[in-house]
Amino acid sequence: MVNPRGGGGGQYRGRGSFSAPQRRDGSVPGQRQASRSPSRSRGGGRGRGGRGNQQASGSTNNQRERLPDEKASGARGGGRGGGDGRGQGQRRGVNQHHHQGRPSGNNPHRPVIRGGLHNASLNSRGFGRPVQGHMHQHYANHVLPDPRRPETTGHQQASGSMTHLRVGPQGAEPQRGGVEAQQSRGGNGGGRGGGGGRGRGRDGTPEVRKIGYKTLEDLLEKEASEVAITLSSSTGFKNLLDDDMRSDLVQLVCQVLCKAFKSRIDRKIVLHLAGIIKDSQFFRNILPYHVTGMISDCMQARRQKYPQHLRNIISLLSEVLNMFPQSSIQSVSMLVALLKPTINQLRASGVDILDNTEQDLERVQGLVDHLQEKSREGTLRSDNYSFLAADEDAPPGEEDFRMMSIYPTIEEFRLDQKPFLRPNIMSQSFPNARIYLDTHFRLLREDFVRPLRDGVRELLRSQHSETADGIPMKKRRFDDIRVYFDTRLVLPLCTPSGIAYKVQFDQRPLQFVRWENSKRLLYGSLVCLSMDNFESFLFATVTDRDPKLLKQGQVHLCFSSDSRAKLASIQPSDSFLMVETTAYFEAYRYVLDGLKELNENDVPFQRYIVECNTDVDPPAYLRVEGRSYDLSSIMAEGQATIAPFNPLTPHAWPDEEKMGLDESQLQALKLALTNELAIIQGPPGTGKTYVGLKIARALLENQQAWSNGSPMLVVCYTNHALDQFLEGILEFLKEGIVRVGGQSNSEKLKPFSLRELTRAPNFRKDLPQHLRRAHHEFHTQMDVAKELLKRQTAELECSLRGILKEDYLERSMSPEHWDSLCLQPVFNGFDGFQSVGKKKPSLIAEWLGIGFSFFMQGPQLTEASDEDGEELEDEKLIDIDEEADLIQAERIVVDVEHESNDWKKQRHEEKNIADIAEQMLAVNLNDAESKEKSQAHQENWQIQKHQKKKLKQMAIRELRKTSAMNRNQERQIKDVWSLSLKDRWRLYRLWVFRYRSYLRNKTLASEKVYQEAAERLTEIQRREDMCVLQEARVIGMTTTGAAKCRHALQELQPRLVIVEEAAEVLEAHTITTLSKACQHLILIGDHQQLRPSATVYDLAKNFNLEVSMFERLVQVNFPFVRLNYQHRMRPSIARLLTPHIYETLENHPSVLKYDNVMGLLTNLFFVEHSQLEEEIKDGRSHQNPHEAKFVVALCRYLLLQGYKPSQITILTTYTGQLHCLRKLMPSTEFSGVRVHVVDKYQGEENDIIILSLVRSNLQRKVGFLNISNRVCVALSRAKMGLYCIGNMDMLSSVALWSNILYILREQGQVGHALTLSCQNHPDKQIHASCSDDFKGAPEGGCDQPCQYRLDCGHVCTRMCHPYDAEHKEYKCMKDCLKVRCKLNHRCPHRCYEDCGECQVLLEKVIPSCQHIQKVPCYQDPAKFVCQEPCQKTLPCGHPCKAACGESCSTLSCTARVQMELKCGHMQEEPCFISKDPKKEPNCRTKCGTTLKCGHPCPGTCYECCQGRLHKACTHKCQQTLVCSHLCREPCVRDCPPCSDRCENRCVHSACMKSCGQPCAPCNEPCEWQCPHHSCTKLCHEPCDRPPCTVPCNNTLPCGHRCIGLCGDRCPDKCRICHKDEVTEIFFGNEDEPDACFIQLEDCKHLFETTGMDQYMNLDKDQGAELDQRAIRLKDCPRCRTPIRRNLRYGTHINRSLAAIEMVKEKICGVTNENKQRQENLALELPRKENFKKHLPKEFAFLEQKLKIKGLSFQQLCHFENLMTYLESVGKLKALKADFMKPFLDEFIPFSTKLKEVSRFLLDSGLRFSDQQIEDLEREMKRLSYLAELNVRCGMSPIKSRIYSSEIQQLREILEDTLPFSEGLERKIKQMLADLESKLPRSGLGITDEERVMILKAIGLSKGHWYKCPNGHVYAIGDCGGAMQESKCPECSAAIGGTNHSLIQGNAVATEMDGAEHAAWSEAANLANFDLQNMEE
Question: Are 1556 and 1528 in contact (CB under 8 A)?
Fold first, then answer.
């Protein structure tokens, strides 16, 4: 069989199938398998292949390294028999999920596809049937690329399609060897290609070449980072490592690799590169062979390079061994063994071996010996093993700090011994730099390890003592850790930084936690998870924190690299105990890593930092002779500029006045510019930031002196301080600033953030090529893995949203439990009624107690309901920066590129999950109340809203529980329906855990790929960031950011570093910020304010951990300058700080000019009280409601004095007080007032500060109020007024507070009450000691009335108020007394409102009509619109219905009139519509036609297109189906399969399918047994025993004898107790005393057995009525309920069911045949080109429908018909697009009718009934004839006008609205035949045969024929271009043209020769040739 198109243009020949033994999988060798083993292909043919197959081989080159089963086919593509048209033949016998070139373990039979040079040009021969390319692609979409080989995107590279590359030694380009790749046109699906023809991969990418010699040489000139990135992301380099190499190339590769390994910032990139090398043929085979061959190498040029080459090889071995000690030990040990004799023999032969070569080799040998020993011991199990030399400075028995794990170890948790620690030396120097680094490393590590270690130890001890003291674990409180119980891994999540996990913990013990303000589970916090009492554990950090999710017990975690390796063994059902340490682990980790990496010789400023030398040198760059600074930019305004001078010359400096600085500020400036390490202390308000900016500006203006290309680094402790400092720099430096970190709140700095700069439109275009390439490759890998992971986790996500259907849980149940579940007890509703006509509820929902029947039985669980939601706040409260948010803002450093907030994409993804959830879930608890789709709520008996809510809440509560049955308990269960509801839920949770485990295991591979790609992409993004940072002049970052970006800082090597807030930074943070290139360090801060915060108090106090480098150097008398003049506080406030905190602090004159605080007698006051504090349950915070109320009342009082909210700040010393304050401060009243914790207000100031000290307790504990640093900050924030409230008696026990209070009492500024003074009545004073006292001044004044006379004459009604003294804003609420008009009408408004015009209604005469109307007083009656009815008559004759004053002409007449429509029907329409010919209404006349089914048509004239396309019949079928249900479909020829839930069931199980689907027969043994007879058949087979006739001997519960028969179920009726019911005559023998009865199980009706037996046997009687012999179940004689369950009549039931199943199969079709038919339709659909092109939406709709699994035969027939008709419509649309010009009136009817047909086909009621098919056929014929006529007219417009009468006759018939009858069709055919000679189809006025003869006679090629504006054809010779003008001989129109340009109106005559472009245009002329059909 030959296909001329080849699926897209190619030929193929197929060889028939042959007999062969069946394989294990059922397939036959040689036959095509759609998803497993495509047939062998041998090239040939033309076609475009699908992208999805493995490339074929055109030669045998480069196949030495391949496995035998991986050889490529020797083919040039291969028709449709196994290639994709580009030479991409696929291996046979390989499962589609193993495309990466690895052997498949699933298929033992894998024939090799052989091929070679000799058959490279042969035609393809395929075995078996062709398979379309897109089928293959479907499977390829589920294959991930190899994580370590990014280029293998699911297919094996062809070896023959890539020419053999010989790499020249001197940079020559690759040479083609052997055989040129030959072109071919194989074909699977269309397209050119062959066995390597163009070397296209399955994804369409060009085939990859090996990297060349010249490229490697060029890389030697690049930076190490660029070399590493290029090699790591290069597919060509991987190919090179696996191919043969010459010796000189081996040398070059080793040299380049050593260069790459020098990159220290790209760790993951280098690690990935090392992994490629160790697994390559180069490392395992080529390099050992090369080392051995070095001895015998005679080429002198190469031997001269051997000394350096040997060093390169040793360096390469050392690097690989250090990164992969376990997996590379074998290869490295072999190479080391080969190198030793090689070096010896080379030295003996005269080669000069470099110094240290042998020592380096011995060092590597030592590592190899060490690792081999560990391997023998069994301790070398992974590549995470680390080894370092011993530290001579470490104490005996202690390891080098560089060998210590940053994470806690098992030994630390288990062994009760103290770690070795040195204190931070405060009074003298450190012995050396190593001990300095060791000290800070151990202290810092201990600071975050100790709380976790001690907490875990306490936890383990409490577990042992739990039984002793009786306190449960969940109620215990631990000091050092926070504990979360029953923690489970739920779901992997894709984040930009890698894989995170959604984790669920038990939130019930944490109901008291207010997550918005809690410090629990903050971003970056370290958690430790264990499920074996910390014998083993996992570490993770918090990556995302949403308080809403935390309330539900959910948090997102990212696991450490070591812990990620263990996740593969973790199951979702595994329950962990999770503990959290309070320390911010991320900051610790990066600093500790930095300390370990810091070489002691690279510690900058060792003279001062380590040796504590106080003799400070100038910066190194200033020591150069001739240096000078120009300080003109920082001179005071109005001062004369000064000449540049040498800053090291003291007398050259200008004085304070010229500089605009005070004395101490000028000293600080001098110190900062002349000392290489400068310390500046700035007490509160002294302007240390101001001085810092002066210093920064001076240095930046003189950047040429110090820069040398490096930037200035500005480091601050907080984001706020950093923003403030950089904004100051921005004032004088408009570009060159880069702000690192994403937590900036400054809009000014937004354009300078690193995130914005790297997102600039042209940023990526300007990046180096190697970064762009690597970014694209790694990002692509992430996207591929992410999409696959999304699909894999979608079901996992859905399983969390509600109750899973039983079908999905079947794999998680035992067979016994599945069968038991399916045996659901019958529930018939209540009161004897049974709900009919709706889907039955899900079994699992019923079983779990949330179905309909359980609701009717009453609630089963008695646990508390969650109906009470959160408290609703009456009004919105002010926004207070929650402490959790503030802490996180400082922690989040790196600018994460978040996912795009594309709401359409998110909505689409959510919809996909929702669709999956609908399929999976029996009850979806995520749905909104109104959209619940639970089957449990779809009964006839409607469940009310509150009842639904009750069920839903119960289900949510149960799902949140984590307890489940264990396997032993599960095994003991026989009947799942007998369990209590509580146990059912426990069992359900066990099944769900198993199901989630199954899903979880599927995601592991994708997670690994995504994580590795994300890590490498992160490093590429860091390199991209470096491109920005290297161009910056100023770089700003926080200390945390500096620790995280330390590698970038080491590479940037900033010479000048300014640290703001340096006294708040731990010394370890500061030292890791500095690089060895730093020449100038300026520390600005104040160690007497806030100090660094340490987690462990013991380390802070006893080991001096909280002492910053700033403070330590000040303590050892290092030179520093203190700023002495404060510019903030009024003197009375500043007096609190001296001499108690600062010895001296001078006041600047500006602070003497402040006004007194209004409304208060004093500007400074401390209110004392004794009200006790309250402890916050979560954490160690406190609150004091008394103080909170007083503070809020005072704030309100100050606002009433006229102060702006921005002038007032409330400070508190504890975070717990923040929430207490917020609850008292509605935003309508306090918006703009700032409320902060003291620690977070460092560096801030405000006019008025109100301070709440909180602490007040009987134990007299003051907490950190005894720390002078914090007290200093609290008391130094106010400028004008400071008001403090606290327990001063308790605080007086602290020396500092005692001194402060002594001064306050001397001045009368402390007491029990604050005196309020009325501004308007100074003699009125209020003594406020509590919040209620402020009620005496309700408006901020006093209790006197205001009595101010307003401008309106009224008196102000308020109480005395100081604000709005002039009453300009006051609104008088009294009645207005003004007269508004001449008639003395008074204003009805309030006094403050505008009176406006007088609106009193008066009777006035309207001049135009003389009517009397009610008109407003102010209005002229001439302008009033009279509202009397209009008396005029409209032009149409109807009376006008408008008002008298309105214009009649502007209204449309709405009178209903009879109107004749175009269809001829009459109907009532508004008059104005009947007069408008353009407004043709839809005809509403009933169609009334009797359809072929015999029923009247339900449509209207319009809906049926005037009887041409009738609407589907809606008559209800109501026939009884074979299953006994009623057919609910509208009128159909053949009833479709029943859609109700199948009700067939037996004693063993129930069918869960829909009724129309075939039921699986029950294969359990028959249960019909009694002492007299026994059935030996299976349950579904007719029984082989007779019914038993012996009466039953059982006794009923009432005590009477059973009235049933032996072997039958006992009836629940008694002959005595229910005499009337039992003896009611039905068959006739019921009243006999020995009558026995049988009760039907389906309807519970009772029948006498002999009569019932006779009734059931009627179908055997050939003379019985037809009704009794029909194929259907027997039904109850009383209620007609089908008899489905009854052992006595099981034979009759089974015989009927077997017949019914045969009928079902006939209706639905055989499953396999339906599946094959569906696949064929899916393959056929893409071939419908016109359908696809012109009806894309409809095409996509049908494409989706054909993807639905399990379509029935009738559905497939429907879709096949729809596809056929839509393709026909598409063809008509194609004709319209090609030949019918739009907007021409003559083509409008065609478009209209085409739309009608399309609408008809897409109507939901379309069922392709006989009537509809007949209508469609007629209308399609009409449209085809009309299209033919339009095409002829369109191609010959001139002739169509000549024969317009004939054409018009045709149009009248074809465009008519009547049905197109057969008679009309015959007439149209005849008329078109008559028209053929006059108006032929070609449009040329000649027949097609004549046209061909003319073309042959003239002999011109395509593109030489043209036509004039009137359509007359002419030809142009030569090149075909117009060079002269002429006249058309037929119509005298201008033709031709000049300079190859046609005259306007002329065009190419496509209808003559098919050309679309003129022949002369070479570029355009390509379109005149069919490139797909060109011969070679």
Answer: no
Asked if residues 1286 and 1197 have their Cβ atoms less than 8 Å apart, the reply is no
Q: How far apart are CA 120 and CA 98, in angstroms?
A: 27
Give 1966 or 700, the one with higher predicted confidence: 700
How many other CB atoms sit within 10 Å of the CB of residue 54?
Answer: 29
pLDDT of residue 877: 62
Write the DSSP symbol of residue 285: I
Q: How many CB atoms lie within 10 A of CB 972?
A: 7
Q: Could you tell me which residues are beta bridge partners of residue 1530? A: 1516
* Cβ neighbours for 1611, distance < 8 A, ≥ 6 positions apart: 1602, 1603, 1604, 1637, 1638, 1639, 1646
**What's the token pair of residue 785?**
């893995």
Could you give the CA distance from residue 11 to residue 13 in angstroms, rounded to a whole number? 7
User: Could you report the per-residue pLDDT of 82-99, keeping only the tens digit for each?
Assistant: 333 333 333 333 333 333
pLDDT of 501 above 50? yes
pLDDT at residue 170 above 50? no
The Cα 860–Cα 853 span in angstroms is 12
Name the average pLDDT for the chain.
77
**How many other C-beta atoms are found inside a 10 Å radius of the C-beta of residue 390?**
9
Give me the long-range contacts of 1483-1492 (CB less than 8 A, separation at least 24). Answer: 1487/1511, 1491/1809, 1491/1811, 1492/1809, 1492/1810, 1492/1811, 1492/1814
Q: The tokens of 476 are what?
A: 């215990």
The more confident residue out of 953 and 208 is 953
How far apart are the C-alpha atoms of 1134 and 1145, rounded to whole Å? 8
Smallest CA-to-CA distance from 875 within 1232, 1231, 516 is with 1231
Question: Which tens digit of pLDDT belongs to each residue from 794-804?
Answer: 888 888 788 88
Q: Render pLDDT for 523-545 as a digit per residue (tens, 0 to 9).
A: 888 899 998 888 888 999 898 88
- Collapse the DSSP code of 996 into the 3-class scheme (helix H, G, I; strand E, B; otherwise coil) and give the result: helix
**DSSP 8-state assignment for residue 354:** P
The 10s digit of each residue's pLDDT in 17-34 is 333 333 333 333 333 333
Tokens of 631: 């300080």
Cα–Cα separations (whole angstroms), residue 1495 to 749, 1491, 1499, 1514, 1810: 77, 6, 12, 9, 13
Which whole-number Å values give the CA distances from 435 to 402, 432, 603, 1040, in the listed order? Answer: 12, 6, 12, 24
Amino acid type, 640: A
Taking phi first (over 0 means left), then psi (-120 to 50 degrees means alpha), and beta for anything else, what does residue 43 get? left
The answer to whether residue 1937 scores a pLDDT higher than 70 is yes
CA 1872, CA 1879: separation in Å to the nearest integer? 9
Residues 6+ apart with CB under 8 A from 640: 658
- What DSSP string describes 611-649? S----PPPPGGGGSTT--B--GGGSPTTPPP---B-TT-
Q: For residue 903, name the pLDDT band (cuts at 50, 70, 90).
A: low
Contact 757, 767 (CB under 8 A): no
Report helix, strand or coil for 1591: strand
Q: Are 686 and 712 in contact (CB under 8 A)?
A: no
> 1373-1424: per-residue pLDDT in tens?
888 888 888 888 889 999 988 888 898 998 989 898 889 989 999 889 888 9
**H or E stretch including 1051?**
helix 1046-1052
* DSSP3 helix / strand / coil % (the chain, rounded to 5): 40, 10, 50
Question: Chain centroid to CA 1128: how far?
Answer: 49
Segment 757-770 mean pLDDT:
84
d(CA 1242, CA 1927): 93
| pTM > 0.85: yes or no | no
* Of the candidates 1545, 1771, 602, 530, the residue with the CA atom closest to the CA atom of residue 1072: 602
